[in-house]
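Apologies for my clumsy wording, but can you show me some protein sequence, whichever is easiest, together with the matching structure tokens, please?
=====
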Amino acid sequence: MNLLDRNKILRTHEDVVRLAERLAKCPEVTQFDSGEHKEAWALADSFGDLESSFREFLDERLPKLNSSEGEELSGLLFEIGEDLQHILYHILEHQKFYRYVTPTTDVSWRPPPKRA
């Protein structure tokens, strides 16, 4: 078992299925079902991906960040930015239940430019 899987909760597809089935019994979740979109499945899938992303950040990225310098540090910061984009996708797009946590005002910003 690798470092990222050591404490993982949602290890298998079956774990995600069981979570989705449990969530599907919750009316606060199913109120967001529409057409082919089943909120319980979207949430369970998101939780699985988020768990992997958080574990990777804590077990790999953060220790490297603490010991990197120069170009390696800069590259790592941009990798973390890509990881954060993936996390935001799961909060803003993939499921509907947690969309309330996002700001309602438009904040325009650009990531810092990469050095040549």
Q: What stands out?
A: The chain has one domain: 9-101.
